[in-house]
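Limitations

Structures in this collection are predictions, not experimental determinations, and the ligand pose is part of the prediction. Treat each record accordingly. The example that follows, with zinc ion as the small molecule, is included so readers can see exactly what is and is not provided: the inputs are given verbatim, and the output is the predicted complex.
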Amino acid sequence: MNPDQAYAELIRLSRTESILSSCAQLLQWDAEINMPRRGVEHRGQQMGLLAGLAHERATDPLREELLTVVEQSPLVADPESAESVNVRELRHDYDRATKLPRDLVEEMARVSAMSSQAWAEARDKNDFAAFEPWLDKTFDLARQKADAFGYDDVRYDALLEDFEPGMTAAQLTPMFEKLRVELVPLVDALRDKPAPQVKGEFPIERQRELSEGIARTLGFTADTGRFDLGPHPFCSFIGPGDVRIALRYRADDFSSGFLAVMHETGHAFYELGLDDEHYGTPMGSAVSLGIHESQSRLWENYVGRSPGFWRHFYPGLQREFSDALSTVTIDTFRKSMNRVEPGLIRVEADEVTYNLHIIIRYELERALLDGNLTARDLPDAWRQLYQQYLGITPPDDKTGCMQDIHWSEGLIAYFPTYTLGNIYSAQIFAAADSDVGPLEESFAKGEFAPLREWLREKIYRHGRRYKAPQLVERATGGAADSKHLVASLTQRYM
Ligand code: ZN
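Predicted complex:
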């Protein structure tokens, strides 16, 4: 087979695999939005079949042959060409998929299913002892997995590669340390600064219309995406031209539903902004979870909380919810969205304290993986760090170390991507603002295309051409640095 044919075949296989996994995505979306409860067992069989087919294809030895033919050809002479990127990334994925022994993959799937069930029960009963052996087992399997993948420096890097390719603990640790050192006093200074509270009724049907209308104004069009009510907010990418957002609203609070719309719309823009021509190949795929989260956070925090944005939208909002808002000024309304209050629960945390929740998890999961901390000692270590960084101590493990599902499912090294998203978003927004800003002024006129176009050009269209740290550096002119996030939080909150 000549290199051109081999490349065409690789692309065909990659696309087929993406289409297969998009079928699983659609089934997953349907399970959350539409499926009757008793359909769960059959849906499990459907998902299992698709996962098996995808794994079989991803590890097919034919890939090795095709990759070898193309890797030795002039097709990959220019390292930034679409061909080179696709071959480099398909090789990366193939090597990782084939490095894990089958029995380890099966054992991880089995333990993850049981452990997440044990976690849910233990959390409800506030019984850490019942979860502890599962946590031990999960971290033991994570060590085996990391060893099967291999690593240069520390085991953690081998796991991080699944979520933030190219990032290492050696880069993360000083970045997080610097952020923590600046956040702790900032949180302290904001602790006693009262923020106004806006109380009132916000009928859900009207919130829905209004929030969806705002997303349309931002550029999320009805012919490429839909909204549904769901059990929790999420964005599901089915394929080019089909992105689905699920939302949840609260009648006593406008901002939680609204900020979720902004967040998920940011995720949707990234997926919709990938190049359709490269669909199903690395060049047409999102680069990392951190970059994905940077896009959602950018629209949520740098657009959805900005004064310019509300100069445009607040009069309409005030008319719509006149009972609750007729006497509330735009300034009070905005400040009410920006409350800072150290709390125990990560998913309810404000924009400033959120990153401390993540840094705590990062430190603890690294210690658990290295064996410097045992599962048994986790609750104590958790309480200590919450006291040290946030000045609060959880009264129990339910609101402490058992609040998140991630570790029980074997998702280790996933948490840092949330804070990376926050760090990247501040830096990316600052660069966009200096290139095509002041963006506040476009927002005040209801114009969002300049920001969207800039993001398409600098972030979306590159797919996996660059690793996340390089992509950020190319888009912003500097290496990823938490100083942009600290500067923005200080400016907006102090
Ligand atoms: Zn997100």
